[in-house]
Automatic annotation (TrEMBL):
It is an enzyme of class 6 (ligase). This is biotin--[biotin carboxyl-carrier protein] ligase. It holds the Pfam family BPL_C. It comes from Rhizobium giardinii. NCBIfam families: birA_ligase.
Amino acid sequence: MTDEDRIGRLALDDFRHTALGDVGSTNTECLIRARAGDPGLHWITATRQLEGRGRRGRAWASEPGNLYASLLLIDPAPMDRLHSLPLAVAVAVHRAIQAVMPPGSNPVSIKWPNDILIAGKKCCGILLEGEGLPDGRHALVIGCGINVARAPDHGLYPVTCLQAEGAAVSPEELFAHLFRSMGEVLSIWNRGQGIAEIIAQWRAAAGGIGQKITVNLPDRSLSGRFEGIDEDGRLMLDMGAGVVHRIAAGDVFFG
């Protein structure tokens, strides 16, 4: 039975985990294994990344003390359903971080599409990458860099780390929560068939709905009120005068 056949019926025992020391990037390690025939559902974690990367090819500082984890999926869903996967990933990472926060701590929220914020400060980077394989399969990697002990400043948003927010947790303990929450959420997502439930959970954890935001697109910036997301997970930006833009990708800034 392939990943494509069974991803909607996942159990935690279906997942494997390989822990490494220094690597180029955990996403790259997953793709190397995919090209060699790895069947997927394989987590790779590392103590440090020497060539960590974020969205749009940005460098991602990856010193020891934080969690660097990537999950390899093979043929996780039909291509026309993959657009909802980043929302599911955000829900899973939000659950894992929320689980280790102490009572009374600052609120944890999701910023569209899949950044995790604590009191408005970014504590996590998520990068999904994929490629077609020579045998016709499609590899997709979910990369998560979570600030546990360090908060590297990447220059775009205010940042924080879990320990600064009062969470007495190690990268290994946090990964145990992520391992569980990702398996549970991927089962709900069910190869894209569970998008309605994922969107409901995403909205419940979202920050900034109703606030003024600016969305930076490759060719321009748009400002308006964040009205939430539509049934396909696109950001709805109310520009006034009855004009609502639906945006599939962009960088969001509050205020």
